[in-house]
Each structure stands twice: as C-alpha cells, then as structure tokens.
Amino acid sequence: MIVILKKGATEPAINEFVEEVKQKGLGVHISTGVDKTIIGLLGDTSKLVPEDFLANDIVETAERVSAPYKMASRSFHPENTVVCIGTGQSGVIECKIGDGKTVPVIAGPCAVETEDQIMNAAFAVKKAGARILRGGAYKPRTSPYSFQGLGKEGIKLLEKAKKETGLPICTELMAISELKNFENVDLIQVGARNFQNFDLLKELGKFNKPVLLKRGLSGTINELLMSAEYIMANGNENVILCERGIRTYDGYTRNCLDVSAVPYLHKVSHLPVVIDPSHACGIRWMVGTLAQSAVAAGADGLEIEVHCCPEKAWSDASQQLPPSQFEELMIKLGKYAAVEGKTM
Amino acid sequence: MIVILKKGATEPAINEFVEEVKQKGLGVHISTGVDKTIIGLLGDTSKLVPEDFLANDIVETAERVSAPYKMASRSFHPENTVVCIGTGQSGVIECKIGDGKTVPVIAGPCAVETEDQIMNAAFAVKKAGARILRGGAYKPRTSPYSFQGLGKEGIKLLEKAKKETGLPICTELMAISELKNFENVDLIQVGARNFQNFDLLKELGKFNKPVLLKRGLSGTINELLMSAEYIMANGNENVILCERGIRTYDGYTRNCLDVSAVPYLHKVSHLPVVIDPSHACGIRWMVGTLAQSAVAAGADGLEIEVHCCPEKAWSDASQQLPPSQFEELMIKLGKYAAVEGKTM
Amino acid sequence: MIVILKKGATEPAINEFVEEVKQKGLGVHISTGVDKTIIGLLGDTSKLVPEDFLANDIVETAERVSAPYKMASRSFHPENTVVCIGTGQSGVIECKIGDGKTVPVIAGPCAVETEDQIMNAAFAVKKAGARILRGGAYKPRTSPYSFQGLGKEGIKLLEKAKKETGLPICTELMAISELKNFENVDLIQVGARNFQNFDLLKELGKFNKPVLLKRGLSGTINELLMSAEYIMANGNENVILCERGIRTYDGYTRNCLDVSAVPYLHKVSHLPVVIDPSHACGIRWMVGTLAQSAVAAGADGLEIEVHCCPEKAWSDASQQLPPSQFEELMIKLGKYAAVEGKTM
Amino acid sequence: MIVILKKGATEPAINEFVEEVKQKGLGVHISTGVDKTIIGLLGDTSKLVPEDFLANDIVETAERVSAPYKMASRSFHPENTVVCIGTGQSGVIECKIGDGKTVPVIAGPCAVETEDQIMNAAFAVKKAGARILRGGAYKPRTSPYSFQGLGKEGIKLLEKAKKETGLPICTELMAISELKNFENVDLIQVGARNFQNFDLLKELGKFNKPVLLKRGLSGTINELLMSAEYIMANGNENVILCERGIRTYDGYTRNCLDVSAVPYLHKVSHLPVVIDPSHACGIRWMVGTLAQSAVAAGADGLEIEVHCCPEKAWSDASQQLPPSQFEELMIKLGKYAAVEGKTM
C-alpha cells in the first residue's frame, strides 16, 4: 500500500500519521520529494482498505501496489536512486551510479592473483577512465578443484590498489562469515549464484555498504527486485541491480545478455541498473559490442573484466580484455554516451 | 570443405577443377574475391581428404569447415553480402541492406487492414525515413478464431501503397500455394513459426526474391544459419537474417531480444542481420530503447511496427508505434547510427 | 462460451437453439453425452452475455470458457476422445488410441530406407506387440545436405508393409502439396517443426485422417491445444497429441521429456496423449526407462523408434532400438500397464 | 585420473603407492570393491601421464576421467552408494536410500508451523508408510515479507516428532551459522536456491550428516554433480541427489519435472537419486501421477509434501497432500515399485 500525502502536510501531522500506521504492526518507508511525500506501508497490508486512509486530512490518495516488491518499486520512490561509492573516504575518488549524467565503468580482473597483477590492472583501468576497480578475492567456482581466490589476502591487495590509485574497490562476498574483511570494500558484489541466498542478503541489509546485486542465472526480474527488497527491508537502500546474462537454450554465448532488463527495471524500479557484458557473453571480442548496446539501452554503469595479460589469467581467461582494447572501447563508449548527453 | 585457389589461377584451370569435383557427386559454390577465388564443396564431403587437393597446382589450401552451414558461412564468402530490395522496378526506390553505410528501417503495420489504413501508414513511415514498407497479408495467429489477414487482397493493397510511395514492400509468406501472389513483393518474410518449414525454404530458394528469414522462437543460431542454407543451396543467395526475440523462462517481455546475435552472426556469416524490436518485447514504450540498442550492436537494419491508430489495430495493438513516436525515434536512431558513420 | 442444455431437451428445441446461435455468426460444436448435451459456441463470443441464454427454457447453464481453445477443451467435450486408426480398411488391424484400456505402441524406423529394411522392421515390431508401424518418408532435417527421405517411394514401401503385416501405418507430412500421397496412410504425423504451420493444420482439418500432432520444440501446452484447435475447427476431430521432449537450457539429453504434460493435458482436454521417448532423449539406453515413466504417467500410447540394424541407420542412429531390446521393453511395459489394468 | 589396481595387490604395496601420489600434492580416494581396488587422484592432474603409473607392478590400468566431477562419478566408485539415515540413534528407525530394494518416501509439511501440526503430520505420514519426516524450519522465501519459518524452534519441534514416532527427520539448512542447531537432524537438505552456495557445501563436507542436495532451478546435471563433489571432496560422501523440477519457458506447472535425470544420474554417478514431485509441479492433483512416473523411472526415493489441513498451510498451500490422499498414493506407488521387485 502506498499513501500519497497532500502538498503542505506539516511535519507533526505526518509524524502522527506514521505513528498510527506503526501501531497496526506495519513498517513505514518515507520518500520525501519536492512536491509530495509518499509513505510506503511495509508488511502484511492485505487487510487494510485504501479508502480508510482518505478520512485523514493530509492524505491525497491511497492505493494498493500490485508488485510484490515495495521499497524497490518506483511507485514507492518515484525519483531515481543515486548510489554513492567511496564517499567520505580519504584519498578515494567518489563515484555516483544512477545520476543520469554518467555511465561509470567498474573494471579490473576476474580474480586478484598477485600484487603486481592487481596493481598493473588498477593503473591501467584508471588510465582508460574506469571509475571503480573490481577484482575477485573469493571466487565462486563450479569445481572444488578450481582456483578459489586469494580470500582475505586478495582484499588486502585490493585495498593497496585503492590507496595507490584512489579508485573505490568492488569485490564479491560469498559467505557471511567473511563480511568482517569487507570493512574497506566500497561496493560489495553479490554473485549470480547467491542472488537468492536470503541470509546473506539480510546481513547486507544491516551492513553499511552499497551492494551490487547480480541477477541469477535464471532469475526473473521480479525475483531480482525481491532480492533487492531483502536488502532494503533490512535497512540498506544502496542497492545497484546488475544484469549479467541469463541462461537460455542456446549456448553460442556463455549466457544471453537480456538488454531489455535495463528499460524494464528503470520503469518499475528507482534503483540503478548496471550491465556486465563480460559474463554475459564470455567471449573477448564480443564484450565491446555488448557494452555499446548496453549504453544505448540506458544502462547506468558497466562492469567489464580487464587483465593485463588475459591469456595467462587464472580464471575466465577467454573473456577479459587487455588494457589496449579496453582503452579503445572506453573512447567508443564515450561517443555512445554522448548521444544522450552523458559521459563515461 | 573449402578450397582456396592460388592468385592467378586461370579460368580454364578453374573450370577443369570444378568439373573434377562435380564428378565426385558434389556441388560447387564459387566466390570470386579481389585477391583469391574460394571454392566451396557442397554435399557429403566426409570421405574426402583435404590433402588430396593440394596435388593440384592451382590449389593453395584446402580445409574442412566445421560449421554445418557452408554457403551462409563467412569462410566461404569473406565479404559482406549486400541484399538489394526493389531493384530494377520502375518507380520503386531501391534499398540496400548490409552495405555497412546505412541502417534501413522496414516499417508499417502488423497487418494490412484497410486501404486507408495501409496508405496512411505508408506515407507516415516514408515521411519519417523508413525505406521499406511492411504489412501482414497472411497472419500466423495462434488461434484459428483470430483475424487471419486479408490474404491476396492485402497484397494488392500493399502493391497500391508501393505505387503511391515508391517504397519497396515486405510481407510474410506462410504457404507455398500462395507464392503466386508474391510476384510484386520485394522482400518475402519467413516468420518465426515457419523458420524450419523446410519445404517452404526450398521453394524460396527457387524464387527470385530477397528473403527476410526470422529466427524461430527457440531457434539456435546454428539452426537459423542452416535454414538460410536451405534457401541458398536451392539457388537464392539474397537472404537477410532477422533476430526477433527468443523464448526464455521469464515472461516480463513477450520474447527476449538476443542482441548478441548481431555480432555473432556477423562473425560467422556474411549475411546481413536485421533486428525486430517490436516482436522482441511486445511493449510499445520499450521498442525505441531496444531499437537504439540494436543499432549500437551493429544491426544492418530494423523492422518496426507502426500503425496510425495503434489502439484500434486488429492485431498486436500493444506493440505498434504511432507515427509521431516513430518520427522521434528515427531522429534519435540517426544519432546512434552516426557514431559509426552510418545513416538510417 | 459453452451452453449446457437441460436433460430431456427435445431435438427440435435443440435445432431451433442452434439456428439462433448460427444467425449470430457463430459456429457450433455439439457434444451429446449420456446425460446432457453441451453446445460449444465458436468464434468471437466476446460480446455475448451468458445470462441471455438462460431465458431459453432448454438451457441449464451458460458460461464463458477462459481457455483460448474450445473444441479441444474438456469443458466442451467431457468424455475422452477415442481415435480409431485403420478402421474399415480391408486386411488392416484396427487400433484405438485413448480407450483407457490399452497403451498402443507406434513403432518402426526413423526413416524408410529400403524395402528390406522396412519389411524387416514391420514384422519385428508386430511380433513384439506394436500396433501401428511408423517410418519417415519425408524427413525434416536441419541440414539441406542430409538425407531428406525417400518421399512418395517411401510411402509406397510403407503401404506394402501394411499389406503384409496388417499394421496401420503412420508417417509425417511436411507439405500440403504431398497430401495426395497420404490416401493410404492411416495416421498422419505433424512434426515438431511444423506444429504451428497453420496452413498445413487447416488442410489436415479438411482431410479425413487421424492426425498425430507433435508439440513444438518450445511449444507451450496452450499452443499445442490451439494447434489442435486449428485442425478440429476445420472439421477433423481425430487428433492425438504427442509430447516428444522440449528444449531447455540443459543439453545432456537431446530434448527434455516433459512427463507432466500427460496428466495436465488429460485434465484440460479430452484428446488422447502419446509420448515419444525416442526423440525426447535421443539416447538408445534411456528410451526404455522413459517409456516406463510415460506409461506410469498415464500416456495413452507411445511412439518408439525401432531399426533392425540401428548402427547403420541413415538418420537418428543413436536413438533407435534393435528388435531384441524392443521386445524386452514391451514385456516390461506390459507390467507397468497392468498396474492400472491396461494392456499394451 | 583413476588408477585401477591389480587383483591381489597387497596392503603395504597399496599404501606405498598412495604415499607416492600424495607427495605429488594430490588427494586420494580409495574405493575397495570385491574384485578390484580403484584409486581416484584428486586435484590438478593435468600434468600427469597415465602411462607413467603402469610402471608400477600393482597397477592394472590408469586413465583420465573426462567428467569434471570425480568422487561423484561412477568411474571412481562403480557400486551404488547406499546412504543410511538415522543410523545408530536410539529409538530411531534407520532408513537406507539407494539400496535398490526400497523406494523410501520423505514426507511431511512444507513448513513446521505448530507443535500440533507437525505431530499430526508425523503420525499421519508414518501410518501411511513414509520412512523419513520432513518439515521446513528455515524457509527460503522469495519475499522478505513472507513467513520465514520458525527457525531453531521448528527444529526442536521436529526433534520432538522424531522422539514420538521414531522417524528420522529431514530439514533445510540455509546458513552456516545455523548448523549448530542441526546436531539431531538426520538428513540435511540443501535447497535449489543454495545448490551453488559453495561455502555452505564445503561446510557440509565437514559435518558428519547425510545431505539431500537439490538441483538448482536452472542447474545442469553437471553442475549438480560438481556441487555434490564440493561436499564429497571436503569429507562427506553421504550425498543424495534430488531432482525437483527445472525452470523452462512454459509455466503451466510451477517447474518442469525432468524425469530423465534419474536414469542419467544413475549412469554417470553412484549416488542415490530422489525425486520431489511436490515442488516439481506445485499442483496437488498432479503430485501422485508424477510420483508414479518417478518410481517407474527408477528413483531411489521420493520427497512429498503432506499437511493435515493443506488449505490452511502457511506456505505452498496448493501443493501439499492431505493424509487421506497420501495414504492412497502410497498404496498405488507400492504397486509400481513391485514391478521391479521393490517395496516403498
């Protein structure tokens, strides 16, 4: 249920209204816009009648929300959410995702391998114009015999790269027990395989860091938004949605980039939407074309894998771009972004 | 098997070589490029040994093609195929698809309904910059109780619109028995449901008209190229491939636009690739964004449904654009095309 | 819309009612049961109000049917349809599919190859207990370079095998133009790739032969029933539905047998349901297990590929059973059928 | 790599061989059969040459395993694994899954709701012949606003039901931090959404309890076996695989039961395979038919949701069976099991 208040409703009147709602056992989400205030009622609202609220003088309209997600819904929060990454950390260059003016790129290697490797990659992607450094410390691998990432040590190396370059860092969390190592991580990634690991999502709701939530391999758009809702309902509204290719019947690419997710998510939600073309196709020469396509579809950002020596990468060797190609791509992407008056 | 001849091989020597191959019961496809001549061997080549051909003085190399398609393969025909629509017909404005300089748009209503309707649509799409007029005369409908199209009468109306506007016309063929009515159709569409109607494809191979071949609802890229091969192996090399959305597990759009098909098809085949964003999403407000995304992915053309009064359309009412929106879209698409130095 | 008449409605009263309906431009389907008569109204019934019919004395109830299919719906035709194959042909052993007492098996090679081959197969499958002989004369092959079937000559060989064994014959139709060769075919198969070839379906609606309609590679249950509706609405109610595996993301079997289709189709439709385990898996050793599973799911029949020398088969070599395995399987299937009091 | 030792190889010789292998940094899995001993080499074996092992007198053959899973593979462990549930606990009736003689049923409500509810359900399913009691204490729900389960309290209630009925208990684990509450749980379920939660799987590898591992919504067979491998490679070989329906393009059932998984998993792996028909279809009236089909496909067990008052269930109300229907079903299933000489 969402309740839209009349223009000019006073703060005491609003507070009184909110108290009443809470006494019914419901949660409340307040979105204060320039013109109007929108109150979202959270919890089991199935027995409420919208008309009952109209009796209150400050209420303009009250209506049911048919979507199962609420805090993630644009009905609840009409204006775009802008997620700020790296804010307030000394020496770190802040990055905003979802501001409608930029298309920031998160770039870096699939996995953190060695100090030299991550340092070189960090400087290379910064030079090319990337705004956030990525690198996997904990790697979700299908096989228990594959390289599982450097773990805590990998995060330490990312922190060092942040210090040297000023780039905020993004890395994946796979288990709640490791969260203690993410204090200096600026953007926490939840991977496709954990997108319905509800306990992990709840925990991230209580942790004060932006989250990059990837759509599951066969996750529906509704499920993605419900998973965002798990994080938001637990207190963290800084969620960025990420489309990274879905599983279909055709295997000519590793996954199938569902580019329609961008306009659709923008329609139904206020959260920023990032595209990961690297995992979507899994083929180096195709990454650039998909990135262009994503920018033209209105993506709020991109996540692209870059490795200084892709053919020697310890994982995903076939999809990482060398710095030279990444640089060229960034220039091309800038031209596509410019069509809508944006920069990378 | 493809055999690449040495530069400077004489015509008599080539003819002699071709005769030898034919005597083995194989077909031959000759692609004469600026520098070299490529001979494709068609049929069951499983018992041939590439090395045997090297004995012939004019042969440079001979190798197996692993892809099951041959004539549709870029190995056979390294240069892009440009398909000319409406060529040589008096009063018709020719349109080239696949020339790398333009992104022609095929536009018009889902179905031809009345003379007024198709005439108005034809003038509207021409004014906005479309290069080919589309309109369904034979409609493949899931239900036998739905409007099945005007049939032959619909084609007559399209012909009239062609005469008035000069736009070449494109319409769908569903049955071989109706082919006699397609003499004045400039581009024959094979719909998703008939993309493996092999008898229809064979017949189109013998008919001297360009074909717009749509990918099936769950057609793989390989199957699409094999279906193109059916047309080509029967004598017609003017095939345009069309991605129009595939069937996945998520139903938030009617189908799922597989934008990766554009770069992949360009890599493995020389045939032009067109995107149909209207059927891909089935939602009016999303068509434009997907069209932008398709242009940025390198599509050689677009097919977009336009109706002067979409809400009264006899079919697919929810996905057709009104002329005003189509005009705006064409302007925006022109900006995206310009990034690669192309025009619409 | 379906209208259920009161018990005891007289024939003249019924006829008068039917005339009234026809004058509204609607078609009528009458299902006369032991107790009650059900009138199905076909065509655009969107403007009718069910209540209006209640004014008529002979009408008990009138209600909208939400399913888009009508003649194929169990609401329209509550009793099971039993399709009789080979009826009234001299020397042919009739076979009933859908009688609830038997689970007839349609068996034979993927393709008719030679006279010896089809004769040997015919006698072998008859000996093992198959009730209908199958064999492809027109073969839908993904590649234009693969064996396309013997065509008309193949049908002649099937007719000969019918004469010798008394088994009715089943073979696939791919093009309307070949229908003239199907006069002596007892059960006409529509393959997965043609399941939405609506012109072909309409033609089969006018041809007086039972049809075995296969579900498309990614056909929904609703689409399958709508395709059956195309045949039925054109005059032929002898339709057998066939589940033959669907396309999913996992390729460990050729297709994925959707065994749930059997109980679901039985719930919503009165048409018999046959399972084709051979195409569903494409793996010889798995065919038997899937056949067992299909019988336990309540299938009304099975279609199984049998070849006297599978490893030399001209197509689908990996999925055809040799006669010895087929014989053993038939004995095992008999035991599963017996659980529900049925025989093979 | 698997190494098969000669019949009669002495224990000291085997130990010496194992030591040598370990010195190369590899793990070892020994499977001692009646006739021969098979040594599986775990870890990165890519640089080993099988021929090198033949120099050792006790080695009969050495060969590479192409499947990415090793301990889960039938090549490594040719005999069926039998998992014993509830063994050695006083008052508990042990249940074996995978013995080839029985098809044990795991039954009970979707979620533990109240003491009365779980007690009534426990006695009802025991009376009907179920061998293990299920009930969800931690519930993975798409929405954060849905009932999330009673948690630890739910497990206490299950323990009480175990004490009263003697049935071993099965319940789902969602987070490593809750594992401490699973000491008295006899079979730990990993749900579809956590089937690639690799940290959870590793932890279960170190916990001494049988695991029921469900296939993910779009998990491939290979991925399921790789997830089993995560558990096994960490020390726990008591893994039961569970097919519970996969996600496809057609939504007429909640998921699509992939019955072919049973014979295929039996072919490539030695682990027992259980089918969950309740989640596969999500429709009460269909559960029984799918259960029959699963037994006929050779499933080693079934998991079926039973609730004494399904229409009042707090979750999955539409798919749970009332005890009366479950009793009837068990009798029917017994007849299908009897075809292969098995009991329920």
From TrEMBL, chains A, B, C, D:
Biological process, per Gene Ontology: aromatic amino acid family biosynthetic process
Keyword Repeat appears in the UniProt entry: no
GO MF, one example: aldehyde-lyase activity
Keywords assigned by UniProt, alphabetized: Transferase
Domain DAHP synthetase I/KDSA per the UniProt entry, residue ranges: 94-333
Classification via InterPro entries: Aldolase_TIM, Class-I_DAHP_synthase, DAHP1/KDSA, DAHP_snth_FXD, DAHP_syn_2
Official protein name in the record: Phospho-2-dehydro-3-deoxyheptonate aldolase
Species assigned in the record: Treponema succinifaciens (strain ATCC 33096 / DSM 2489 / 6091)
